[in-house]
Amino acid sequence: MALKSWVxxxxxxxxxxxxxxxxxxxxxxxxxxxxxxIGDRILDLAGCFEDGLLHEDxxxxxxxxxxxxxxxxxxxxxxxxxxxxxxxxxxxRHRVARHLLPRKDAEMLLPFSIGDYTDFYASIHHATNVxxxxxxxxxLLPNYKYVPIGYHxxxxxxxxSGTPVHRPSGQTRExxxxxxxxxPSRRMDYELEIGAFVGAGNDLGTPVPIEQxxxxxxxxxxxxxxxxxxxxxxxxxxxxxxxxxxxxxxxSPWVVTLDALEPFRxxxxxxxxxxxxxxxxxxxxxxxxxxxxxxxIRSAKMEKPQRISRGTxxxxxxxxxxxxxxxxxxGCNLQPGDLLASGTVSGTAKDSRGCLLELTWxxxxxxxxxxxxxxxxxxxxxxxxMRAWCERDGxxxxxxxxxxxxxxx
Length: 409
Hints:
Layout: E1 23-27, E2 32-38, E3 41-44, H1 45-50, H2 65-69, H3 72-86, H4 93-97, E4 100-102, E5 107-109, E6 117-120, H5 124-134, E7 150-152, E8 158-160, E9 165-166, E10 169-172, E11 181-184, E12 188-189, E13 192-198, E14 217-224, E15 227-228, H6 229-235, E16 249-251, E17 256-257, H7 258-261, E18 265-267, E19 287-289, E20 292-298, E21 306-312, H8 320-328, E22 339-341, H9 356-359, E23 367-368, E24 374-375, E25 383-392, E26 395-407
Parallel strand pairs: 6-22, 8-16, 9-26
Antiparallel strand pairs: 1-2, 1-5, 2-3, 3-4, 6-7, 10-11, 12-15, 13-14, 13-22, 14-16, 14-17, 18-19, 20-21, 20-25, 23-24, 25-26
């Protein structure tokens, strides 16, 4: 049965009911404050702390790093206290109400000071689709089913939802017999991903055992890993993505805790017969999450966005527990606020593919928009809108939106 809040907007078809309470950072004046989303409101945790309603000193920080550094137990205790304060019949309701403000009146900021960013390649459907474009007879490289593949991204170019994204310039080569050219990318793409923010870190030289990996994850968000496909094709060998990826990565503003997602756990992806078992340090694999995802596009000529794909996070080949355990297996030290992204989330159906590279099959099958336009890749003025949520038994745990509009450099 759904919980009831005295904040009425939290009780009706909201991404942010009392069962959720995702954390974020907002600004409604000069200062950045930590808040939680409840219905169409934000609860200012710094104000609640000053008023004696909360006793966690990390509520006064301008980002979530300090709270995350204290581990999941601290966040769990704070979330439980917030549920008490916001539940129907709470005795301190009138004191708490002083610290609520409309979400529409707040400017959302990055939830963490992000020190490092790693992007993975955890969807076997995405890896198979992309591999088959370049290696039809052997789409997956021999290591894929043994090792979670990832690369280090650029933390400084991570931006919050709603930030305009500039079309990057770079080297491209269309004609294999001619030299490369430098100019704006003509194959701009999005990638639908889920990100995990690191909570408590680990010391340099101390791997995190997989059984403890999720204790080092604060929560999840939506990630759009923008990509310049023509730049990527030319530059990625032999060292992988570089300028094709690091010009911008957009994240949603609200971080949904693993405790809020607990009712939506599902078994890890069932590997087909004949696939190798994960190596011992990647077992047990942990559980996945039954997260629904969708992508919409609105061109400059469209009044309303058009949904172009729907997918699910439950089909990922590698779990976040495996990604974090692998990341630290060589002694790499993760720090509070580091971001680990899943890589493009794709399924087996065409309308579950998580990027235009797959949806248009490298531009050979154009996407038809309701405006009469076609898209092989993104054009200037196109807005990409990503949404994610879990839903069961009348309870919806939403992630909100991750938005970005493409413009010229």
